[in-house]
Design brief:
By secondary structure, the protein is an all-beta fold. Helices cover 0% and strands 33% of the residues. The strands form two sheets. It has a four-stranded antiparallel beta sheet, with no helix packed on it. The two termini are 13 Å apart.
Length: 105
């Protein structure tokens, strides 16, 4: 079974300064990486948009993780001490491989 079908994630607590967040799990493309933010002051918890809310300073590959930058825009405050950010790989049901011979493996 491929490790690309597990749903790895990493969660960071904000500290009021950090804007760069590493993750070690591989991904086939940047669109497979999903980032969620929880803002304690407003209770906002939602997925944030690639290239608008966060960007990659190091894109993931099928063998390595990467690094995101949040916030990606000026004027957006960094995550405070009670805020959290979660980086995960989207998961899908299925298989990337089609077997033409359906005999027992």
């Amino acid at each position: 079974m491929s490790t690309l079908y597990q749903v790895p994630k990493v969660i960071y607590n904000g500290n009021g300064k950090q804007t760069s967040f590493d993750f070690s799990f591989p991904a086939k493309s940047t669109t497979e990486v999903e980032v969620w933010v929880y803002l304690a002051a407003t209770g906002f918890e939602d997925a944030i948009r690639l290239n608008e809310d966060f960007i990659f300073s190091e894109a993931p590959t099928e063998n390595n993780g990467g690094t995101i930058v949040y916030p990606a825009k000026d004027g957006v405050p960094v995550l405070g001490e009670n805020d959290k950010i979660c980086i995960m790989r989207k998961s899908k049901l299925g298989n990337d491989y089609i077997f033409s011979n359906q005999t027992r493996l």
